Amino acid sequence: MSKMQTMSSTQARAFHAVANAGSFTGAAKALNVSQPTITTQVKSLEDLYGVELFHRHARGVALTSTGRTLLDHLRHMYARQNEAIEYLEAVQGLRTGSLWLGAYGPYEIVEILAEFNKRYPGLDVFVRFANSVTLEDELLNHNLDIALFGCLENRPEFHTMAYRWSRLAVVVAKSHPWARRKSIHLKELASQRLIVRERRAEARRILEEALNGAGVKCNDVMEVGSREGVIAAVARNIGVGTICDEGFLPEQLVVKLRIVGNDSGTGVDVVCLAERKESRFIGAFLEIARELRSPQVQ
Q1: What fold characterizes domain 169-263?
Q2: Which among 124, 223, 252, 287 has the fewest CB atoms less than 10 Å away?
Q3: Among 3.30.360.10, 2.40.50.140, 3.40.190.10, 3.40.640.10, what is the CATH number of 98-163+267-297?
């Protein structure tokens, strides 16, 4: 980037005013200029460095994590404009900053993160595990940058990239009578205590659709709020469970069985807000996910 392409004092002042006022209208009044002038200055600053400084919404604006850090620089060292410029250049070069991720399970997210960390070791990464409905809400509320889960429906707000297909399977304890088997039929689950995920979980929805489709009714059900919780309960031989992923299993404790005549499963997608897919941090993560994703879903 040319040395001439740096943040101007006008752009910095416009950003500072919007951040303090919480809106472009308030900033325009504070600086006694037109609102389009403020909007143009802030937008040109974001375009210059390829960053997002504000989340726009009907009630005004909210600072992104990059915006909050920039505001700290300007508040404490406003006269030292070069320090703020160096920070933005670091964000542009993916040398500093933070990325907030969400995932349904640990396997796929850790797979991508391992490569992401090699390429961008200076970035701080935070990961939250939750069910699919919660992850969708967190993306829409700008609490997450990217999430990996089975997207519940096609939504125009989301940019979705297929990453892997995960098949529904049964898991039993090593001490369970089925432990030496390779597969079971769905109807056999009716005779067992079934360990299932919470109702908002995608794995629970897939299981119930499969059972209803086969006309199988399970009366003895225990609900557990995580994949790891299901596996732990199964390992203790409290019941048999179902999982909907190809992640790691403690093979010394549980056995995975194929379900005969049933191909139910769910896709694991990499999801972000469509309006943010071109941001540098998110774009870098999507590029790595695209390189690593399963050939079967490409």
Answers
A1: D-Maltodextrin-Binding Protein; domain 2 (3.40.190)
A2: 252
A3: 3.40.190.10
Q: pLDDT averaged over the chain?
A: 86
138-158 per-position pLDDT tens digit: 999 999 999 998 766 778 999
The CA distance from 98 to 224, in Å, is 32
β 265-273/254-259 pair status: unpaired
| Percent of the chain with pLDDT strictly greater than 90 | 51
**Separation of alpha carbons 49 and 31, rounded Å:** 24
CA distance 112 to 67: 26
The helix or strand, by DSSP H or E, that contains position 115, with its residue range, turns out to be helix 106-119
Per-residue pLDDT tens over the stretch 66-100: 999 988 878 765 545 555 665 666 666 666 678 99
Tokens 């089925």, residue?
178
Q: What share of the chain is helix, strand, coil (3-state, %, to 5)?
A: 45, 20, 35
Task: Give the containing element (helix H, strand E) for 103.
Answer: strand 98-103
Cβ atoms within 10 A of the Cβ of 156, count?
6
Supply the pTM of this predicted model.
0.55
9-92 against 98-163+267-297: fold identical: no
